[in-house]
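Sequence, structure tokens quoted for completeness.
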Amino acid sequence: MKQKKSVLSRVGSESFEAPLKPSTLLGSKKRYIRMLPLILVVLLLVLVWINKGMVVAALVNGKPIFTTQFHSVLRARFGSQTLEGMIGEMLIKDEARRAGIVITKEDMDAKEKEIISSLGANVSLDDLLKFQGLSKSDFEQQVKLQLTVEKVLSKDMVVSEKDIDAYIATNAATLTATDPAALRVQAKQAIIATSVAEKLQAWFAELRQKAKVLRFL
């Protein structure tokens, strides 16, 4: 029995730690409280570094150009022009929605191909984007806007075969297609583009006049 008691007492001492004294717990808590400001500062510095573009736009010889300064200059120099452009795009999209105009992927592909082919045989889309300083997304947005305007203004337009014949007869030098069918398609597109260009300014002015626009900048 004595041997069992000694084994049990040994197992108990190895398996269970003695509970921490209140003074020890209090000391740990105080150390944590003292370290808390340092932890918060480190976390703040990490967050600032991760999101540094939100605070500092650039460093010039160690001196910061703050993002707020950058945005302020952008707004002062280009803000009005950019805002007016965005307002115009929204008005065009609203008008297209009312007219039931939808731009499909096939429309986009055809328009992009038309634009690239008009630049010459050795010019690619990448060349165009690089020359204009545009991303593919920006280019597609511009193409979609152009297509939207064209579809809205040519919605009820009818181009007859006689119109196409007359255009080819008087503008053959400006057409690049050699295949007869492609030539007629190009001539039709040119007729529509000319008509859209003639209507565009008056149509857009009327659109803006009717719109209710509140500016806060």
